[in-house]
């Protein structure tokens, strides 16, 4: 990943840097006005932070981007596999209708310029997708519940159905989240991945020192990209563990649910 701002508010992806029609970012904890467990650059409105702080942080975020978005589209995520296409139907809806449309959504897809689609995470895995052939983008929230239910594969198939997306044209960025070394799980989570057909020898291991199974969510999502035909050279993994680097990135396992979130966004500049 590469730094976008001198104040350390955001990072960007090297894989998307060559594409001038794309803006993208991953926020850090630095440079905002929120306090307590939201300190300081929380841009997500759904976790209990003061609305004025969230609004100010979002203004700082938009001002730092090379192109100003018409809107930051941030869904209310529920660890499901539902996706929403941001198109004229959404844009022509009232504010209350938009809020309703964003409920229970864990992936966004759009081909509309200047609509910055975003995903909120704090240990879960954010994934940004760019179809460079059909100029379509997606943002996917892949916690363990979404990953085990193949949310990334579902989103890719919906992009294929609506945009004509093929794996060879996808640039994929797997963002900061909890690492294999830090993600201890119970037997029931390990069994859920096994039951869904994941190659456990590739994504899991028993750690004697923790007496727990560990799951590699980065690898589990990388496999879904590979299964869709995305070349490995077009997949960038940030390699940043939010649990270990909690001073720079929000971690719900460290701070609890009532805390800030990393915001990952992608936009067609138009």
Automatic annotation (TrEMBL):
Signal peptide: none annotated. This is Purine nucleoside phosphorylase. It catalyses: inosine + phosphate = alpha-D-ribose 1-phosphate + hypoxanthine; adenosine + H2O + H(+) = inosine + NH4(+); S-methyl-5'-thioadenosine + phosphate = 5-(methylsulfanyl)-alpha-D-ribose 1-phosphate + adenine; adenosine + phosphate = alpha-D-ribose 1-phosphate + adenine. Belongs to the purine nucleoside phosphorylase YfiH/LACC1 family. The keyword ATP-binding does not apply. NCBIfam families: peptidoglycan editing factor PgeF. The gene is pgeF. Keywords: Hydrolase, Metal-binding, Transferase, Zinc. One of its GO terms (molecular function) is copper ion binding.
